[in-house]
Amino acid sequence: MALELDCEEYFVDDAAMTTATSPEDIDMELVDDWYSSMLAQERAQFHYAPQPHYLKVRLVLVDWTCDVGEELDVPKSIVHTAVNYLDRLLNVPCALPPQSKLQLVCLVCLWIATKFASVDCEVPSIEEIYAYGHQQYTLDEIKAYEMATLKALHWQLNVLQPIHFTEFYLTNPPLFPDDDINGYQLADPTAYATVYTKHVEFLTEMCLQEHAFQQWLPSVLATAMLCVARRIVHITPVWREEIEINSGYVVDEIQDCFHAMWSHYVHHFSKGTADEPSPTSVAAVSQYQHHQ
């Protein structure tokens, strides 16, 4: 398989393309406005300034936050929002809180995220937060840290992570009858939608763990995830004009992100094959130049 995402063989001839359709009851103008608002919001919030003092402990904190979120049956999108709060709190040029308080910071971020964004899940009680803190923190401490966190975040709780964009894109998965999978035509895309979606979801978790992926906008990461997932399950072409239409990005704008994500996946989660790129450090990829 060729490596270059923009290689000519990865594109479908315009005459052969089938255009994705949407249910008639969906107001596509409203959807377009919603998506445009998401793009504007992420650009206004975009900030990438990794601090070495935080990166040393970030993976442990993110893992633990995700584990607690799973035990509390909190939706993934809310957990990802909590990690955004955590990054904003701790990714600043100052000393970390005492090690004994790091779990409390994680718990409070998750608690705030569930309060703000919860629709389909119950907000954990303060007693549950107390229990998951192994009873190390008093109820008064939890309340005090909650207020301090809200102030530190300037009460700006409405944030976008890549998972919010993938959820948007996956309402109509980019799978098409004229796609090829392992050399055979994908006649019924719906039959493969579940497998494909699970791979996209896995990539959102993978990128959440690695802070260096934050050098790209969430929508760029999400678009790259659509393509990387297609490649993982051996669907060609990797890039479709429909993806460009739905995401608003041309292939050159996601190329670096795609290769970094694919290389990271191959290095950490795949045995690899002869035609795959050599694993490279995500952090070594040039920083995404977002739109001004």
TrEMBL record:
Keyword Zinc attached: no
Boundaries of every Cyclin C-terminal domain copy: 160-288
Keyword Oxidoreductase: no
InterPro entries: Cyclin (IPR039361), Cyclin-like_dom (IPR013763), Cyclin-like_sf (IPR036915), Cyclin_C-dom (IPR004367), Cyclin_N (IPR006671)
The entry's keywords: Cyclin
Domain Cyclin-like: 63-151, 179-263
Protein family membership: Belongs to the cyclin family.
Name of this chain's protein: Cyclin N-terminal domain-containing protein
Taxonomic source organism: Aphanomyces astaci (Crayfish plague agent)
